[in-house]
Design goal:
Elements (H helix, E strand, L loop, with lengths): L2 H14 L4 E4 H7 L9 E5 L4 H9 L3 E4 L10 E7 L2 E7 L2 E4 L2 E4 L7 E7 L2 E6 L1 H10 L4 H14 L4 H8 L5 H17 L1
Length: 189
């Protein structure tokens, strides 16, 4: 089954269960034209819907609780193998760092766009959220740079999500970069 067919099956299963979810990671970046390929399918789910997401996806393939490796400490982390595709599902996505633990606030307000994948609507998580997350991930700073360049060129669509991130536990270098992006955006208005 192709990646788009797997994504369609996932979308149908999660919509049927009324799960608040969104595509994230490299596959989401691909929808914006920022990367050419993705290794797996990363999904964010709202915590109240985490159990329903597991029940729905367990019908599509093999999987279960994943083992988080530092610095990640996500509360609901499940990994699936659907056909030949790896699917990671995260609720209360969390990353430990020198200033504490950042927990991504993910809810229906975090879904910013819907992409059509062969006629099936697939909700996308916000570039603004992933700008913060990629800065906290080891070896992913390049993706944060890509997102920052995109947001500076096209504008910050959801400054409220960056402001919401600043209310969380962030190291100073991330806090500074998010604040600078918000300031640059305010000068464009």
């Amino acid at each position: 089954m192709s990646g788009s067919l797997v994504l369609q099956a996932i979308a149908h299963a999660l919509e049927k269960e009324k799960v608040v979810w969104a595509l994230g990671g490299s596959l989401m970046l691909q929808q914006y034209g920022l990367v050419g390929s993705a290794n797996d399918i990363d999904l964010l789910v709202a915590m109240p819907d985490a159990a329903r997401s597991h029940a729905a996806l367990a019908l599509l393939g093999r999987g279960g609780p994943g083992g988080s490796k530092a610095p990640f400490c996500t509360k609901h982390f499940y990994q699936y193998r659907i056909e030949e595709h790896d699917v990671d599902v995260m609720g209360d996505y969390s990353t430990e760092h020198e200033a504490g633990v950042y927990v991504l606030p993910f809810d229906a307000a975090s879904v910013v766009r819907v992409a059509e994948v062969d006629g099936v609507p697939v909700p996308l998580s916000a570039l603004e959220d992933w700008f913060v997350l990629y800065q906290l991930m080891p070896a992913k700073k390049g993706k944060a740079d890509l997102i920052e360049s995109y947001l500076l060129e096209h504008g910050v669509e959801r400054p409220d999500l960056l402001e919401r991130a600043l209310a969380g536990a962030l190291p100073d270098h991330v806090r500074s970069r998010v604040s600078k992006l918000l300031q640059a955006q305010s000068h464009l208005r």
